[in-house]
Amino acid sequence: MNSPDLNAPDPEPAPTCSAKGCRDAAVWVLAWNNPTLHTPQRRKTWLACEEHREHLSQFLGVRGFLKDVVRLDEWVQPEGSERA
Q: What number of CA atoms fall less than 13 Å from residue 29's CA on the CB side?
């Protein structure tokens, strides 16, 4: 019988939704940019569960910040993005 390696690092936690108070699994990446603060190619990201994707997209969209919405399993981190 093998003993667990107590010195092994903890696995990375599963990504969770960025909506306030939500701890559901993230399914979507919302790539955004505030043009008054960021260069045009810069992408910051929020993660969203199915329930909060539309709400978070609207929040960013109304401000003109939303650039792209991509499924988390299809997300490719562009150069300069904050999250993988």
A: 19
